[in-house]
Amino acid sequence: MKAITYSKYGNPDVLEMTEQPQPKVGPGMVLVKVKAASVNPVDWKIMAGYLDGVMDLQFPAIPGWDVAGVVESVGIDSRKFAPGDEVIAYGRKDFVHGGSFAEYIALPERLLARKPKSLDWNESAGLPLAGLTAFQVLRRLEVKAGETVLIHGGSGGVGSLGIQIAASWGARVIATASEKNHGFLRSLGAEPVAYGEGLAGRVRALSPDGVDVVADFAGGNLEATLQVLADGGRHASIADSDVEEHGGTWMWVSPVGADLQELADLVDDKKFRVEVAKVFALAEAADAFRLNMEGHTRGKIVLSVD
């Protein structure tokens, strides 16, 4: 099968299109024919060697954890899915090797969920990691109807889904972004504020008594978070471990298929948007990585594999 691989740590120049063996499908596994896969910052951070101290990697490595595709075959005692089923997954395995930037990927069936009917393939590929991150953070923070939630990084892949999830649970949402994206935030159900110097004052102007919950999906916002958090409020970050020293929670998304299915059902019920910034062909993976590394896109960067 065709796959994007790299055989040493480095920048996007180490990526190349190669022929690789089709993955084996063991007990409890599912082979998925990939339709689309999305690029996440963790993909190029692993490729650059930044996570070498915490992630085992086997070269040649196929990057990619987000996938949307069709079940090709199932392994022994795999009973939840059948050939032809349309599925999505946050396909993080125990070590980095056989990722989603390929024609096929084999995954444990416990990681899979059924593709939302309301999303196309590219949108579906952008949902798992970003959506699960937002979903698990907001659930850990026990967001309730009537509460006010501040989301840092509202226009990004995670933040844009976090806005919609919190709003669907009945929360009032305030979200940060550059002014050019304020219309986008309003369309998702958030009250926008500009990030940067003076942020706490702008949030207090909208919510004088402070906010009940802060979800930091961008990093570098601890000081502002503490300034606007109401007494007894809860906060978490996916980008700043220092929150733990101030009563917050530092989180990293977990690959749980049951959570992803709950999210996919919520997407179909509430007709969430998954913003896709740009779609690249599989052979253009290096360009997709470079765009993601710039860090200024609104929404997801996707590789169309089929």
Automatic annotation (TrEMBL):
Superkingdom of this protein's organism: Bacteria
Annotated GO MF terms: oxidoreductase activity
CDD domains: MDR_like_2
Domain Enoyl reductase (ER): 10-303
PANTHER family associated with the record: ZINC-TYPE ALCOHOL DEHYDROGENASE-LIKE PROTEIN C16A3.02C
Protein known as: NADP-dependent oxidoreductase
Organism: Paenarthrobacter ureafaciens
